[in-house]
Amino acid sequence: MAKNELKIGTTLSMMTIIVSSVIQILYTPLYIKYLGPGDYGINSLVQSIIGYISILNLGLGNTMLRYTTKYRAEGKIEEEKSLNGMFLMIFSILMAIAFIIGVYIYFNIEKFFKVSFTIEELKKTKAVFTILVLNVIISFPMGIFSTNLTSKEKFIYQRGIKLITIILNPIVGAILMINGFGLIAVTASTVCFALISYLFDMIYAFKLGMKIKFSKFNNIILKEIFIYSFFIFLNVLIDQIYWGTDRVIIAKYIGVQGIAIYSVGAIFNTLYMGFASAVSGVLFPRINKLIVEEKHQEVDEIFLKVGRLQYILLGLISSGFILFGKDFITLWVGKEYIEAYSIALWIMIPLTVPLIQTTGISIMQAKNMHQFRSIVYFIIAILNLILSIILVKKIGVIGCAIATGFSFILGQIIVMNIYYKVVVKLDIIKFWKNIFHMSIPIAIGMALGYILNLYLVEVNYLNFLIKTGIYTLVYALLLWFMALNSYEKAQIYLWKK
Question: What local confidence, expressed as pLDDT, does residue 378 receive?
């Protein structure tokens, strides 16, 4: 991997996440104002349902990336062409299956949500679902082009296209809303941008020499691919159960208003996860190469380095949200959404651990050791589902967040860290010593932030900016002098240049 490609790709990833975060923060209150909390809840619900159809790709995107990288490194050009053809055929079959499932869901939406939804809400839900499911169906075969570009490490192009789309999409959506267009038009504009990006990926992939060859499937390779993909698919399914099922449960037992409140809280965790993935997301090809070359010490070093870098950023976000999150939500969308603060915290705090260990997932996939993680997560996901249904009936929307947070602690913190240590052979003890050392200045900073809250009690924009500004400066100084090592300080100097 060219160093400049990695550096610029990571920079564009960070820019994309920052811009996306700012836009989402600006766009959400606009969305609620012009379309209402009901439409906001409907959109969030349909996105969750669509997520279940999306997992039909069975994790084949990562599988294709793995084998494409492998064949190219071994100089097997013809095998790579045949691989492209095989995946195109597989994705086309999955596209047909997705269409059938989409039709089935469409005709059962009323049956499932008729108790908690009005007739008008059901009509809108079906219309939005139709538009978004068509986008997902088309994305299946078109995904091979994006994967091919990733295998060639074209991170600048991919992050650049994503950044442009993220900027233009809400601008067009805002123009439509302000001019009186409703939820259907805004959803359709989003899909148009997705279709354009698919087209660009296809054109660029062919321009870079991507070849597709249709030949008889190699049954041995096909079996190996599906075994590898199955466990990745389980992880994707589990993620969907974690992040998508809550909205479906809330929709069934509470209604669209409950979805709106939960979705506001979930936004913070979506942004939180995005920041964590900015660095690790471009490292899979490099990790895969190190695994093939059996450079295990370097893999361990990447795990620790990336984890520390992620914790520097996530520590600021999570501690800042604990201190000033209520003020932010009140100023952002109003006091009626204040429950979103507790929802966000119940998920954000335990979520921090797996996020600073995201590189571990890539390491396990590259070593083909992700089967255990998939099985454990599946069991925990079912537990989360059962707990969510029980708790949402007893204590409302917050019950889903509590169930999700508890599941994270049990599965993604306790069980997975034991597995990283015993089986994957990562130096987890060293990792946690580093994180504990970095947490000391963060705790000191939070104590000072608490004092700020005691003196600046009134909730207004000026006080919020003063408190967050002072806290960010104190946080940076404390970490610089008490936690950052020479490598991390050098990285900051390099990025400034």
Answer: 82
How many C-beta atoms surround the C-beta of residue 282 within 10 A?
A: 23
Return the exposure string of 87-112: e unless at least 16 CB atoms fall within 10 Å of the residue's CB, then b: bbebbeebbeebbeebeebeeebeee
Instruction: Enter the tokens of residue 216.
Output: 């008889």
What sign has the CA pseudo-torsion 442, 444, 447, 449? negative
Q: Is the dihedral of CA 425, 433, 301, 153 positive or negative?
A: positive
Q: Which ranges in 208-295 belong to alpha helices (H)?
A: 219-253, 256-280, 284-292
Q: Is pLDDT larger for residue 154 or for residue 261?
A: 261
Rounded Cα distance, 94 and 330, in Å:
44
With 0-12 / 13-18 / 19 or more C-beta atoms within 10 angstroms meaning exposed / middle / buried, residue 458 is exposed
**Exposure on the CB side of residue 390, measured as CA atoms within 13 A:** 9
Structure tokens of 124?
Answer: 């809108």
List, for residues 158-170, the tens digit of each pLDDT value.
778 888 888 899 9
DSSP string, 301-316: HHHHHHHHHHHHHHHH
pLDDT band, very low/low/confident/very high, at 1 (cuts 50, 70, 90):
very low
Euclidean distance between CA atoms 425 and 299, whole angstroms: 11
Instruction: Check: CB of residue 260 under 8 Å from CB of residue 336.
Output: no
| Tens digits of residue pLDDT in 91-138 | 899 899 999 999 999 999 998 888 888 899 999 999 999 999 999 999
- Rounded to the nearest 10°, the torsion over CA 157, 309, 423, 380 is -80
Give the torsion through C-alpha atoms of 23, 24, 27, 29, to 10 deg.
-140
User: Could you tell me if 407 and 242 are in contact, meaning their C-beta atoms sit under 8 angstroms apart?
Assistant: yes
CA distance 78 to 86: 12
HSE on the CB side for 133, CA within 13 Å? 21
- Distance, in Å, from the CA atom of 426 to the CA atom of 476, rounded to the nearest integer, reads 29
236/232 Cα distance (integer angstroms): 6
Cα separation of 94 and 333, whole Å? 40
How far, in Å, CA of 283 to CA of 273, rounded?
Answer: 16
Residue showing tokens 């990790």: 287
CA distance linking residue 155 with residue 8, whole number of Å: 8
Which residues are CB-contacts of 459 (< 8 A; sequence separation ≥ 6)? 327, 330, 331
Say if CB 400 and CB 391 are below 8 A apart. yes
Look at the alpha carbons of 162, 163, 166, 172 in this order and tell me if their dihedral is positive or negative. negative
